[in-house]
Amino acid sequence: MCGIFEVIYFSLLQNAYRSGDVSLVYPMARGTGPTLSVIGAILILGERPSTVALLGVAVVVTGIAIISTAGIRGSGRARLISVIYGLSVGFYIACFTLWDGWAVGTLGLPPVGYYWMALVAQALFMTPLAMRTKRVVASLRAHPWVIGLIGVLAPMSYMLALTAIQLSSVSLVAPAREVSVVLVALGGALFFGEKHVVQRVIGSVVVVSGVALLAVG
Questions:
Q1: Which of 9, 16, 42, 143 is the most buried (most CB within 10 A)?
Q2: What residues have CB less than 8 Å from 169, skipping those under 6 apart?
Q3: What is the model's pTM?
């Protein structure tokens, strides 16, 4: 099931990046994801995070809101589409986060074996779709080292997240992962020439503050 959630997640995320700034879509998705994850962890998994931890979640979401309102490419319908994509991606982040928490936290499945099954599901669903376009083959030939590096680092980060869930809880790990929005906000400006850097950096600092509260809680 995790593999299916992630296939939908990756498909939505790719389309979201085509419609707007990465420093808007990514924080929007990553703000929605942990918020819904914490609510789901309380309602479905029966977790009871501390008051300080819940305050940390609120601070993280506030920081992401500051980043998200810093302006995007285009306006009107384009902005609405970007926001809808961001919220949709966040919903599926919450879906596979809660499923992960149940699988490795409640059932005690080993992260390596669990993620291996998810990768098999992703390969079965996504490979036929990917091979239909010549762009995929061209990209593999043009950027083999970059794609290979992503292929190593992405599973590694996910394995760390699964291990953290086993050691802690979904309601704490899900928001703590969102420290990545700091790097994305800065990267959007440095690599893609996106604007409103000051507001996005301020929002990033707020996010880091929220993560600090999560660590204390």
A1: 16
A2: 41, 47, 49, 101, 105
A3: 0.73
Number of domains in the chain: 1
Residue 76 is classified by DSSP as T
Are 68 and 14 within 8 A, CB to CB?
A: no
Report which of 4, 50, 34 is spatially closest to residue 170, judged by C-alpha positions: 34
pLDDT for residue 43: 83
What is the C-alpha to C-alpha distance for residues 64 and 210, in angstroms, rounded to an integer? 10
Residues 6+ apart with CB under 8 A from 82: 16, 19, 20, 21, 24, 25, 28, 72
- Per-residue pLDDT at 93 exceeds 60: yes
Do 165 and 103 meet the contact criterion of CB atoms below 8 Å apart? no
Average pLDDT on 202-212 reads 81
Token pair 């080292």 in the structure block, residue:
145
Please tell me the predicted confidence (pLDDT) of residue 108: 82
- Does residue 63 contact residue 210 with C-beta atoms inside 8 Å? yes
Provide CB contacts within 8 A for 144, sequence distance 6+.
Answer: none
List the domain range (segments joined by +) for residue 167.
Answer: 2-216
- The answer for residues whose C-beta is within 8 angstroms of residue 105's C-beta and 6 or more apart is 45, 165, 166, 169, 170
* Dihedral over Cα of 193, 23, 89, 165: its sign: positive
Give the percent of the chain with pLDDT over 70.
Answer: 91
Q: What is the pLDDT of residue 100?
A: 83
Which residue's structure tokens are 């929220």? 210
